[in-house]
Amino acid sequence: MTSTFHSIETARRSLFAQTTALSTTGHNIANANTEGYSRQRVNMQASIPMEPFAFLHSTTPGQLGTGVEFDSITRVREKFLDDQYRNENTNFGSWSIQRDTLEKLEAIVNEPSKTGFRTVMDNFYKSWSDLSKNPEDVTARRIVKETTLALTDAMNQISRQLDSLGQDLDSNIAVKGNEIQGYLGNIANLNSAIVKVESLGDNANDLRDQRDLMADKLSKIMNISVTDSPQGYQVQMNGQALVTGGAVQATVDSAFLNDAYTAGTLTNGEVHGMIKSRDTLVNDYRKQMDDLANTLANGDIEITIPAGSVLPDNTVLDNVTYTGAARTLTSDLKVTVKGLNGLHQLGYSMDGTNTGGLPFFTAAGGGTAITAGNISLNAAILADPNKIASSLRTTTNASGTETVIKGNNTLANLLANLKDTPMKSADGLRNATIGGQFSAIVGQLGVQSQEAARQTSNSEFLVQQVDTRRQSVSGVSLDEEMGNMIKFQHAYSASARFMTTYDQLLDKLINSTGMVGR
């Protein structure tokens, strides 16, 4: 039989349920702009009716309900979209770093530009052309010296900037290692806290949101997979456990990340992009610039020395030694020399001697191999520009004394023409003019930068697309929440009115019945 106060209990349950729904709506509205927050929902259901199915049953028709109750407060979240977001986010992380590195490389190379390396190189060759017009002009020789210093300084500067970029990337890898370790520790702590809360039968919605946010941020830095288990999230990197339950399984630092990249377990994310940028992109352009500097100084050049030229005594060209009368060429001689250094050593300077010229370029600091970082003008030439060789002719007087014809410009012409002469690199992979080899470097950089920008744009679009879909499911819509707030408010008001109405009925029953005849 129905209790006299049955409807009071029904109204009470409704008031409690609508109050909880209103409080949850307020919580959603308050966190509308909270990063990583998922909207929450109160799951309501009809409470157990007065007379459930049993052997004994009253004769009262119908099954009288007892109102409403909520069994849980859950967050609205879709794991499939979370996994998609993290997969796309890790791609975006890697490409964005590579794009950033290539943009910095473009700024270092600074081509095309009126102040870039190509302009400096053109000025260098032009100074030799100007010297060939008046080999005895001291000013022209000083200009050759200064343009050479500008050329070597430009190469040194590019090398220093490449080294600095590589060091910055290396430092950032260590910083990211600390950041990763922090995220892993937070996820492990949240795993423990969530297990404790949910062991009491509640849903740790806000803690789960924080944990998912940590996983999202971690996914941009490195490739991870996240599996939910009774002990919490298990975070792995290509099968390597990083977090299991409340314990962090790895100490992530720079060495760990570099080893993971080498082993092939670190395949994506910002750290992957940093290591790839450092070890592949920056190192590749450093090597190409080193090869360019070494080729300019010592690369194989095929030249034709005109007839009438007089070679320095004991000159060796193509395994042939020129001495005595053989030093004077009776016909054009086509030979291979070792770069600008080798060609410069075939000529004569204005230092008053008839010995061959000095190596034009040397390695600063006493190094043996010339690179972009150490290429420099020979210190002796730097101190005395008269040691710049420009002549290939000598004359011998009646007494047998040989003197240099200082006004001869044969060597200066040959050096000026190197601008259009192919030079074979030391590794034999390139055979083009120095300008052509530098153009190949610039062209390669442009293509790589364009591809990285395209990949970054595509991956960013996919991340935004998945995040938009995820927000449509999990995000807080203020319009929807305002609608819910009005709905729950009216339900609460109606429940309160129902309780008041029934209270009045009971008042009439208790205080006004049985009064007849008094």
How would you briefly describe this protein structure?
It contains twelve helices and 16 strands. With 518 residues, the chain is an alpha+beta fold.
Structure description:
55% of the residues lie in helices and 13% in strands. The protein has 518 residues and is α+β, with helices and mostly antiparallel strands. The mean pLDDT is 91.
Radius of gyration: 42 Å
Shape field: rod-shaped
* Class by alpha and beta content: alpha+beta
Helix content: 40-55%
Chart the SSEs and their pairings.
Elements: H1 6-30, E1 40-46, E2 68-75, H2 79-109, H3 117-133, H4 138-198, H5 205-221, E3 225-229, E4 232-237, E5 240-244, E6 247-248, H6 254-263, H7 270-298, E7 300-305, E8 315-317, E9 320-322, E10 333-338, H8 339-344, E11 361-363, E12 375-377, H9 379-383, E13 394-396, E14 402-404, H10 410-416, E15 423-424, E16 431-432, H11 434-474, H12 478-512
Antiparallel strand pairs: 1-2, 3-4, 4-5, 5-6, 7-10, 7-15, 8-9, 11-12, 13-14, 15-16
Helix pairs in contact: 1-12, 2-4, 2-5, 2-7, 2-11, 3-4, 3-10, 4-5, 4-6, 4-7, 7-11
